[in-house]
Amino acid sequence: MPNLAITYPDIITASQRINGHAVVTPLIESALLNQRLGGRILFKAENLQRTGSFKFRGAFNKVCKLYDQGLFNAEFNGVVAYSSGNHAQGVAAAAKHFGIAATIIMPADAPQIKISNTKALGATVVLYDRNNEDRAAIGKQLADDHKLTLIPPYDDADIIAGQGTLGLEAAHQLEALNLRPDLAISPIGGGGLISGIATALKNHFPHIKIWGAEPQNYDDACRSLVADQRLANEPAPASICDAIVTPIVGELTFPIMQHYLAGAKAVRQESVLQAMMCCMQDLKLIVEPGGCVGLAAILASQLEVRDKITLVILSGGNADPAMLTRALRAS
Predict the structure, then answer these.
(1) Which of 67, 227, 233, 289 could form an SS bridge with 241, CB 3.0 to 4.6 Å?
(2) Within 13 Å and on the Cβ side, how many CA atoms surround 67?
(3) Mind listing the domains of the chain with CATH numbers?
(4) What is the pTM of this model?
(5) Which residues pair with 11 in a beta bridge?
(6) How many angstroms separate the CA atoms of 114 and 108, rounded?
(7) Which residues pair with 82 in a beta bridge?
(8) Closest CA to 274 of 257, 285, 289, 262
(9) How much is the pLDDT for 284?
């Protein structure tokens, strides 16, 4: 086995740190949707997590570890992170819990609900132009100038292990139902979520096939897995799936993805809007565009689920009212 950034025991440790702080989100299914698709589909509703997405898991694991090490008393004044919104809120909430100052770098065109929620959690928000400025460079500069600890959104072992607690939790829920899933599909941005999930699920269900899903024109994971090397996204029109739009998959996450994943699917915007509507109509859930790309791939017949048990990760629910209206109008 290759030397990967995290192991299953790392996820167990992370689960102990977040226990009692993160929500144990439910597995949800729809009998009508199962009938329509010809298989059993179980949705991990992480849109119901604290701050509205899975990002709270990794952020809390990271900040908790740093806090326990005493770094904020000795070396650092607080934390800084860059994010389009979900990691931002996760870090802000975790920092608030420990009484630590948080500075969050967010794109000026991020959904207003994410910017407002991050500020409401007590963080200082610094806006930047995603087309002309480098968020990582801004983050490093702020960290150096103000003695802040930079918390990356995905390419960090503690973040990956924290996100892996979602997969661990889902595995235990499936086992409690006496189910052994054939497939799993999860959104991919930088790869932190799917790397953590895959590490946990493969430990419990060695024969499961795990797929990623990402938006069309931002299919760096799909192309990278085929090419067997990390490939960056080319400049493209803005995507409604802002939560999972990243320049390139992580250096730490990509080897994990190579080891565990069957591949990735790139989904069209129309399919994503259809998936959002399906979540509202069939599951009674509000899911943001980037959070339901896995379901979008299934609805577009890009993943065969007939006569199979499939786990679908719904990774977040921070959708602006305008985006929900758009999904309703597209149906």
Answers:
(1) 289
(2) 17
(3) 8-52+157-330 (3.40.50.1100), 56-150 (3.40.50.1100)
(4) 0.95
(5) none
(6) 11
(7) 105
(8) 289
(9) 97
